[in-house]
Amino acid sequence: MLVVGLDPYGRVVATCAVGGIDLGEWLVRKGLALDWPQYSKGRYGGAQRDAEHAGRGIWKGSYVEPWLYRACIRASAKPSDCSDDANAHH
User: Fold this and answer.
1) I want to staple 27 with a disulfide (CB 3.0 to 4.6 A). Which of 5, 18, 33, 71 is the partner?
2) Quick one: which of 81, 25, 70, 22 has its CA closest to 51?
3) pLDDT at residue 63 in the model
4) What is the SS3 assignment for 12?
5) CA-CA distance, 28 to 52, in Å (whole number)?
6) What pTM did the predictor assign?
7) Contact 60, 42 (CB under 8 A)
8) For residues 13 and 3, is the Cβ–Cβ distance under 8 A?
9) What DSSP character marks residue 8?
């Protein structure tokens, strides 16, 4: 584990690797996670584009990024308003 810093809540932000494989990149490339540029500085952007173009994992359907969903809820919206496919990636 390589600590990169702390988030605004004091939680550790780190990269993790096993056998020289970056687990964050592996998850993003498989479509099982999203690149979060706020913390990754775009490190996984290429892996995310590959997953999106290949239609892997979450890229098979639609979704709302977790940070956008949470912002919507904080703005006092109902969960159904925040998850609506009209607001989601396709």
Assistant:
1) 33
2) 25
3) 77
4) strand
5) 10
6) 0.75
7) no
8) yes
9) T
In the chain, which residue ranges form alpha helices assigned H by DSSP?
A: 23-29, 37-40, 45-54, 66-74, 79-83
Distance CA 84, CA 62 (A): 10
Pair of tokens at residue 35 = 């690149």
Question: Could you give the 3-state DSSP secondary structure of residue 89?
Answer: strand
Question: What would you report as the CA-atom Rg of the chain, rounded to the nearest whole angstrom?
Answer: 15
Contact by Cβ (8 Å): 57, 43: no
For every one of its 90 residues, what pLDDT tens digit does the chain have, with 9 covering 90 and above?
889 889 889 999 999 999 999 999 999 999 999 998 888 889 999 999 999 999 999 998 877 888 888 898 899 878 888 875 555 555
- How confident is the model at residue 50, as a pLDDT? 97
